[in-house]
Each structure stands twice: as structure tokens, then as C-alpha cells.
């Protein structure tokens, strides 16, 4: 059976299949142990108010599933020291897939999003879904073998894709840089290799989840902005990823820049942020000035060389991104904005341009404690988020109960 990531529009909570949601179920007790802190049966009884017999029964169920394991013994003032139990992230594995326009990054992680094996391949998304997903299946199978695990050990597969995803079905909707992918059944195709839940989301949403889970778990309101071939954002509000009504939330790239030009955009409009401040747009502006910048790598090399015109162009692109983000700051009031994507690696001039526009155009109250930072996950945000997408769903109360049952 395949599940896709679904966000309840009424409360932002992840919608889950119907199941045992009893507060004293094994799945509910497991949520208290997911933080990895060892606890005794007495600790759990005190935290929940449940009878010791109920706690013991639920602990035994979780031990049998391997989702928790003994964590040693606590000191005792007399008699036998009480045993402690903690989350066992090695109980299952997760396959995390981050697809970009020209690359595929694939990893096997444990249930705590720790990467066990990883590979990045040059893979052009325009080759179509069958070619790309077949390559993903082969690489993933090899990675599982490398870490001594099998597809039967998987909790699920998470996939981030560079296009708009209808989250209710996990299918792409008119992706501009992905010919042949429109409404293609990604989960159905990957089931040829992996008969587990397969969750598909936009790559920037996955990056937001990854950065949030690993670097900012205590931040309730943040945005992750990817600036590369396209421009998009993942929005975390009240600790939850927001998709919007059809999964189109966060599409910054097709917002008109306040002082933008009439530059045509791939969406059919003019003056979109993506048309004037994405990686290809910056490279095109520099080519018009006589620079030889055929691709992103050449652009980054030019900026890092300290060329004054390249630095000014990148900083201006940052200002244009910031001018759009300023409206987002006034509307959503995040406390952290993380900037990722290949253009963000151009250095502080790009970030400086973003900060300049945001702080000058946003309300003082909204920016009082706002931090605008570069990504801290070193290119792994996508696979970490794809892993978190799976564990957030697969380790929910209902699905743990189903797994045990």
C-alpha cells in the first residue's frame, strides 16, 4: 500500500490513515520515547498516568517490534536497578531520494535521519520518469546491499522532485523542467523495487523539512528558500510543513519582482523572480556584459574570483530575492529564513543583498528577531528531508500501531 504526504488544511497536521489512536496504545507511548532519552517503566507511568500493567504491556510490544531497545539500568537505592528503554533508530531504514534538474542524490538513512550510505549521480531529469526512476531503483538497491540491509528493512521511501506536486496523489502537475513527468505515477513505478509506503513532495519542501529537523528542531516558524535553476520556498508554520490547498504553497519564483523588468519567464508572464534572479538569469545577465559564463559552475568561479561586476550582479539578484521575501516576512513572520541552492554558495554578497532588502522593506516587529542564514546541511537538506518525510508519517501513532499489529 502507498501513502503520500497529506497536510490537513484545518489544522496543518499530517493526515493519517484511520487506525488505533487510543492514548494508551503502543504507538502513543512510542512518541514519548522518540527523543532518544532512556526511560524506565516507572518514568513512563508517571508521564502518562497509565497503570504499570498497561505500560509493561506496551513496552513489551515495542521491544518485540525493535522500535525500542534496552538502554541499560538506572542506579538504585536498593534492590534490582530498574531497566531503561530508548528509541532504536536502527530498527528500520529509510530510502531518501533528492532529484534535481541535472542530478540525483540517493541515501539510506536510519530512523533518526542519520545517513548510512549515500551516492550522487549526474542524471538529467529531462530524460523522463522511466529512465530516471529506473536508475534510482538500481542505485538504491546497491546502497542497501552496501549497508547490509534489504528492501524488507525499509520503513518507506521519500522522494523530493523539482516541480509542483499534488500532495493528495504524489503526482507532479505541469512541471516546467520535467518533460514527460506530468501526472506520472512515481510511487507506482518505484513499487517495482520497494513494496513499502512511498511519499513524494516538492524538493524545496523536503529541504525545509531536512534543515528544520537537523538544524532548527526548536524553531516553530521558518522558511527554506532554494535559489538555483528555479526559485522556491518550503514553509514551516507552527512546527509543521505547509502545502496549501493543492500543494503549490511556496512558489516564490513566479511572484513578480516589485522593481523587475519585462524579462519573459518560462511560466508565460514577465518580470517573475525566477526570470531575473535565478542561476540561469544571473548567468544570462553576465553574458550580456561580455562574460563567458555558460553554466552555474562558471558563474560561481567568476564570483569567487572577486570580479566587481559579477559581485554587483549577484548582490542585485539577492536584493530582488529579498524584495519578494520581505512580503513573506510581513505575511508569515518567520524567525529563521534559510537560503539554499547552488546560487547561495556564491558567498556573502548574495545573502547580503537579501538581508538588505528584507530588513529595509519589512515591518520592524516582523524582523526584530529574524535570522537570514545560509544552509547548514552541506547539500544534504533534500535527502534529510525526504527521510524525515517518511519517519514523520511512518512513525506516527497510527502507523506504529499498524506496524506492531
Could you list some keywords that capture this structure?
ROK_cs; disordered N terminus; 405 residues; 14 helices; globular; Nucleotidyltransferase, domain 5; alpha/beta; NBD/HSP70 family sugar kinase
In short:
With 405 residues, this protein is an alpha/beta fold. It has 14 helices and 15 strands. The longest helix is centred in the last third of the chain and has 25 residues, at 308-332.
Write the layout of secondary structure elements.
Elements: H1 26-33, E1 39-40, H2 41-48, H3 52-65, E2 68-73, E3 83-87, E4 93-99, E5 103-109, E6 115-122, H4 129-146, E7 154-161, E8 165-166, E9 171-172, H5 186-190, E10 198-202, H6 203-215, E11 222-227, E12 231-237, E13 240-242, H7 273-277, H8 279-288, H9 296-304, H10 308-332, E14 336-340, H11 348-361, H12 364-367, E15 371-374, H13 381-394, H14 397-404
Parallel strand pairs: 4-7, 7-10, 11-14, 14-15
Antiparallel strand pairs: 1-3, 2-3, 4-5, 5-6, 8-9, 11-12, 12-13
Helix pairs in contact: 1-3, 1-14, 2-3, 6-13, 10-11
Give structural notes.
The protein is an alpha/beta fold and 405 residues long. It has two domains: 93-203 and 382-394, ATPase, nucleotide binding domain (Nucleotidyltransferase, domain 5); 209-374, Nucleotidyltransferase, domain 5, CATH 3.30.420. The protein is built from 14 helices and 15 strands. It has helices spanning 26-33, 41-48, 52-65, 129-146, 186-190, 203-215, 273-277, 279-288, 296-304, 308-332, 348-361, 364-367, 381-394, 397-404, and strands at residues 39-40, 68-73, 83-87, 93-99, 103-109, 115-122, 154-161, 165-166, 171-172, 198-202, 222-227, 231-237, 240-242, 336-340, 371-374. The strands form four sheets. It has a five-stranded mixed β-sheet with strand order 6-5-4-7-10, sandwiched between helices. Strand 4 and strand 5 form a beta hairpin. Helix 1 (26-33) crosses helix 3. The longest helix has 25 residues, at 308-332. It is globular. The two termini are 16 Å apart.
Amino acid at each position: 500500500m502507498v501513502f503520500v504526504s497529506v497536510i490537513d488544511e484545518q489544522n496543518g497536521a499530517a493526515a493519517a490513515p484511520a487506525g488505533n489512536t487510543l492514548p494508551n496504545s503502543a504507538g502513543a507511548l512510542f512518541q514519548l520515547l522518540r527523543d532518544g532519552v532512556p526511560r524506565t517503566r516507572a518514568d513512563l507511568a508517571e508521564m502518562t498516568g497509565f497503570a504499570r500493567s498497561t505500560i509493561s504491556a506496551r513496552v513489551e510490544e515495542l521491544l518485540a517490534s525493535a522500535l525500542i531497545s534496552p538502554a541499560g539500568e538506572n542506579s538504585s537505592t536498593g534492590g534490582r536497578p530498574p531497566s531503561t528503554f530508548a528509541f532504536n533508530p536502527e530498527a528500520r531504514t529509510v530510502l531518501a531520494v533528492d532529484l534535481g534538474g541535472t542530478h540525483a542524490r540517493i541515501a539510506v538513512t536510519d530512523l533518526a535521519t542519520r545517513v548510512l550510505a549515500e551516492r550522487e549521480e549526474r542524471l538529467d531529469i529531462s530524460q523522463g520518469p522511466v529512465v530516471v526512476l529506473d536508475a534510482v531503483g538500481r542505485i538504491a538497491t546497491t546502497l542497501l546491499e552496501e549497508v547490509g540491509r534489504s528492501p524488507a528493512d525499509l520503513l518507506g521511501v521519500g522522494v523530493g522532485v523539482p516541480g509542483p506536486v499534488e500532495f493528495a496523489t504524489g503526482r507532479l502537475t505541469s512541471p516546467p523542467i520535467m518533460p514527460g513527468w506530468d501526472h506520472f505515477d512515481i510511487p507506482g513505478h518505484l513499487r517495482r523495487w520497494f513494496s513499502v509506503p512511498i511519499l513524494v513532495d516538492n524538493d524545496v519542501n523536503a529541504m525545509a523539512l531536512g534543515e528544520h529537523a537537523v538544524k532548527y528542531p526548536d524553531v516553530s516558524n521558518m522558511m527554506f528558500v532554494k535559489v538555483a535553476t528555479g526559485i522556491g520556498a518550503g514553509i514551516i508554520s507552527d512546527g509543521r510543513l505547509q502545502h496549501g490547498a493543492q500543494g503549490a504553497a511556496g512558489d516564490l519564483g513566479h511572484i513578480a519582482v516589485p522593481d523587475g523588468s519585462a524579462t519573459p519567464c518560462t511560466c508565460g508572464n514577465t518580470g517573475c523572480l525566477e526570470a531575473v534572479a535565478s542561476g540561469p538569469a544571473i548567468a544570462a545577465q553576465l553574458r550580456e556584459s561580455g562574460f563567458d559564463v555558460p553554466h552555474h559552475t562558471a558563474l560561481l568561479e567568476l564570483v569567487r574570483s572577486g570580479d566587481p561586476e559579477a559581485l554587483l550582479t549577484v548582490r542585485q539578484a539577492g536584493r530582488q530575492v529579498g524584495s519578494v521575501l520581505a512580503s513573506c516576512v510581513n505575511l508569515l513572520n518567520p524567525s529563521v529564513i534559510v537560503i539554499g541552492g547552488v546560487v547561495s554558495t556564491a558567498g556573502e554578497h548574495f545573502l547580503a543583498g537579501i538581508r538588505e532588502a528584507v530588513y529595509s522593506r519589512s515591518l520592524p516587529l516582523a524582523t526584530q528577531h529574524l535570522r537570514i542564514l545560509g544552509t547548514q546541511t552541506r547539500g544534504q537538506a533534500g535527502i534529510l528531508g525526504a527521510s524525515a518525510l517518511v519517519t514523520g508519517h511512518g512513525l506516527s501513532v497510527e502507523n506504529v500501531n499498524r506496524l506492531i499489529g
